[in-house]
Structures are given as structure tokens and as C-alpha cells.
Amino acid sequence: MFNIFKKKLVNNEEHIELDMNNIPKHIAIIMDGNGRWAKKKNLPRTMGHKAGVEAIRSIVKECNRIGVKYLTLYAFSTENWKRPKEEIDTLMKLLIQYLKNEFNELHENGVVINHIGDIKKLPVPCQEELKSAYERTKNNQGVVMNLALNYGGRDEIMDAINKLIKDIKSNKTSTNTIDEKLFESYLYTKGMPDPDLIIRPSGEQRISNFLLWQCAYSEFWYSDIYWPDFNVYHLHKAIIDYQKRDRRFGGIK
Ligand code: FPP
């Protein structure tokens, strides 16, 4: 019965099948390894980031095609400000170029270009481009692409607590008990399901302050491949591995 919905992907001699009945609703990716990819090729780090932007295109398109509802991409963390100014400037420029160059195709494909994180600290042109991209695509019906920018899981939780305190003090929220549902409505990911699958390429196996609240029951998938080399084949591999996992959410079968 289920095979009817299975999609076949052929890569070299390997045949892998995606169960279209069990596509993760929310995939989150830590796009790691740009610098090492560049180093391996004797290129400047900035070229690695440029190649990293290129890698995004096919992944968004494929997530949209197979019916992933949310795709969260970790593009700049609250800790990335520690990097040299030149690298930060390049990343900000790449962000603007990405939004300008890819906008039409993303919009035509029905992608919602959303952002999460405290973007007030980004250069003003980045903020404007992000807000405009969101305004123009917010009613689209395809995958919601969350660009995580100046994002940190701890910051997000602290922000949520502070906003909640403010709302309680000003009687906007009247409650004696704070439950998970109320708290989640103060997070950047308000209204979104938690990530089912978190992918981290580049050989590192840590969470790096990414979606700390939301990853409570996420499935993790790691690979040694550097982000610029990550393609649809690896995405399918990650999803197929995810589909083999037995998710019990702390319960029993
Ligand atoms: C990690 O690689 C990557 C980042 C800190 C930035 C990710 C950014 C992009 C893919 C491009 C910008 C995104 C958009 C949406 C325009 P790293 O530099 O830490 O690599 P390394 O660990 O090998 O040094």
C-alpha cells in the first residue's frame, strides 16, 4: 500500500527510497564546514561561505517539493560576532545578495522567507531586506524557510522570559501558572512544530546553541560532508535514516 507513495532517488549505484507518508514536518540544518571546505581547496574562508549559499538553493527546492513544512537554516549565531569583522561583513553581504538574487524563484515556488533571531542587531539593509522578503512571501503556501540570524537558543529563551514578565506586569497576560504552551508562544518559533530532524554536516556532533527548547525530541543526523558539498542526495539519506527511527517521545510502543 505505502509503496505507491514512495519516491525513488538514484545516485551512483545506490537506490534509496523516501517514504512520502513520513516526511518530517520540520527540518533544521546547522550549515557547518564552509571554512574547512575552503581550506581544503586553498581558498579564502569567504569562498566557503559563498559556496555555502549555493548549497541552500537545491535543499530549499527539494524540501518544498517533498512537502516539508518548515526548514530552519542556522546562518548566523549570536556567537558568530566573535569572528573577524571582514568575515562578518562578507556574511551580511551574502545574505543581502541571497535575498535579492533568489527572491523571484523562491516566491514563484511558494516559499515563505521567514527569519528567526534578534535581527535588530544586524546591519539595517539586512533587516530591511529580511522584513521585505517576509512581507512579500508571508501568504505563500509552500515551505516556510526560517533563516536563523543572530540566533541563539539561550537568547531566545531569555527573550521569551523577559517578554512574558513584561506582559504579566502590564496585565496583557493574566496567569498564575506558566505552562509550556504559553511559554512557546513567546519563542521565535511561535506556532511552528518542533524540528523532527536536525542535520549537522562537517563532522561536528554538537547542538551549538541551536533550537535548545525545541530540540527536546528531535532526531539528529550527522555527516562528515562539508555544507557546501551537501546536496539533495544527502538530504534524502538523512530523511531515510530518520524514517527508520522509532520515535517514542519518552513513551513505549
Ligand atoms: C559555519 O561554517 C557556517 C556559518 C557560520 C555560516 C553559515 C552561512 C552560510 C551557509 C552562508 C550565509 C547564509 C545565507 C542565508 C546568506 P564555518 O565557517 O564555521 O566552517 P568551519 O567550521 O569549517 O570553519
TrEMBL record:
Q: Answer whether the UniProt record assigns the keyword Ion transport to this protein.
A: no
Keywords, A to Z, come to:
Magnesium, Metal-binding, Transferase
Oligomeric state and interaction partners are given as: Homodimer.
EC class: transferase
User: According to the UniProt entry, what is the EC number of this protein?
Assistant: 2.5.1.-
What job does the chain carry out? Catalyzes the condensation of isopentenyl diphosphate (IPP) with allylic pyrophosphates generating different type of terpenoids.
User: Active-site residues?
Assistant: 32, 80
The cofactors named for this UniProt entry are:
Mg(2+)
Starting at the broadest rank, the lineage of the source organism is:
Bacteria, Bacillati, Bacillota, Clostridia, Eubacteriales
Please tell me where substrate binds in this chain.
33-37, 45, 49, 77-79, 81, 83, 200, 206-208
Cofactor note (record): Binds 2 magnesium ions per subunit.
Keyword Lyase applies: no
Which is a Pfam family this sequence falls into? Prenyltransf
What PANTHER family does its record include?
DEHYDRODOLICHYL DIPHOSPHATE SYNTHASE 2, DEHYDRODOLICHYL DIPHOSPHATE SYNTHASE FAMILY MEMBER
CDD domains under this entry?
Cis_IPPS (cd00475)
Entry's InterPro entries? UPP_synth-like, UPP_synth-like_CS, UPP_synth-like_sf
Q: Where along this sequence does the record place binding of Mg(2+)?
A: 32, 219
| Protein name per the record | Isoprenyl transferase
Q: Which family does it belong to?
A: Belongs to the UPP synthase family.
Which is one GO molecular function term here? ditrans,polycis-undecaprenyl-diphosphate synthase [(2E,6E)-farnesyl-diphosphate specific] activity
